[in-house]
């Protein structure tokens, strides 16, 4: 699974553009090209997905939050 979203509110804390997901541009042609590239590049899509999971586990799971607050 890959997250594609607009860079609003706290989304930027979870997505690192082109590393753990993608920011959509509001340009339908550019965004369609991005999605087409992901569909046609399953290895890249798998890497982005794994990066996202690792980023969330390292920074946003309960244990990571506890470490941030020395819990």
Structure description:
This protein is mainly α and 71 residues long. Helices cover 59% and strands 6% of the residues. It is built from four helices and two strands, in the order E-H-E-H-H-H. It has helices at 11-14, 28-40, 42-59, 62-68, and strands spanning 4-5, 22-23. Strands 1-2 form a two-stranded parallel ribbon. Strand 1 (4-5), helix 1 (11-14) and strand 2 form a beta-alpha-beta unit. The longest helix is centred in the last third of the chain and has 18 residues, at 42-59. It is flat. The termini are far apart. The model has no long low-confidence stretch (mean pLDDT 90).
Features:
mainly alpha; two-stranded parallel ribbon
Average pLDDT taken over every residue: 90
The secondary-structure element order is: EHEHHH
Q: What separation lies between the terminal Cα atoms?
A: 31 Å
Instruction: Determine the fraction of residues in helical runs and give it as a percent range.
Output: 55-70%
Reading side by side through the largest sheet, how are the strands ordered?
A: 1-2
Strand count, sense and closure of the main sheet? 2 strands, parallel
Report Rg. 14 Å
Class by SSE composition: mainly alpha
DSSP strand (E) fraction? 5-15%
What coarse outline follows from CA principal-axis ratios?
flat
User: Got a strand count?
Assistant: 2
Helix count from the secondary structure assignment: 4
**Residue runs with pLDDT of under 50 for 5 or more positions:** none
